[in-house]
Amino acid sequence: MRRTSRILVAIAAVAVVALTVARLHPSDGQAVAVVEDLPAPARSPEPLIVVDVAGAVAKPGVYRLVAGSRIVDALIAAGGMTGEADLAALNKAAPVRDGQRIYVPRPGETVPAGSAGSDAQLKIDVNHATAAELEALPGIGPTTAARIVRSRGGHPFTRIEELQTRGLVTARVFADIRDLVTTR
Q1: What is the pTM of this model?
Q2: Torsion of CA 103, 106, 109, 111, to 10 degrees
Q3: Are the CB atoms for 74 and 97 separated by under 8 Å?
């Protein structure tokens, strides 16, 4: 029996060696899998926007930010607000858009027209607002918001009075939203 065990162990060892050699050196008729290390696909650069940051910031200037950035991102790019900044003057979570000017005022200082936080910037632009933004206006529901969006599609508004002259809102609703909307 000892001899039989030795023969079985020898056969098993030969089989293992044969399998190993077969894997390392396949015969001509066998398919061989080739694994290639492909370079990672190049990531497309994220779109950038350009903003002008001024006022009570450490480094006023023009900065490039990733699209979708917030005012806080622009402030960080400009080195942060100085100790003389009016901390409550800006909504730091508001999104920024390409070409926007962000002005950080000092206490008691008014924000220049056209800058983030100015009265003009706080108004909803009827030519670019989403239906949801329009619905936030008093007296504007989903149907009216959709009609405004459709109406501006073919012919953008040049004056806010067109909301009424095109028959999109009543005189009463227009009186309620007149100071809340703009056309840019």
Answers
A1: 0.49
A2: 10
A3: no
Residue 130 structure tokens: 């989403």
Judge contact between 71 and 97, C-beta under 8 A.
no
Give me the residue spans of the domains in the chain. 48-121, 124-182
For residue 63, report the phi and psi dihedrals to the nearest 5 degrees.
Answer: -130, 145
Quote the CA–CA distance of 98 and 51 in Å, as a whole number.
Answer: 6
Return the closest-CA partner of residue 86 out of 67, 61, 106, 57: 106
Architecture of domain 48-121: Roll (3.10)
pLDDT band with cut points at 50, 70 and 90 for residue 12: low
| Sign of the torsion formed by the C-alpha atoms of 47, 70, 73 and 102 | positive
Mean pLDDT is lowest, of 16-20, 54-58, 69-73, 173-177, for 16-20
Q: pLDDT (tens digit, 9 = 90+) per residue, 92-113?
A: 888 888 888 888 999 888 777 6
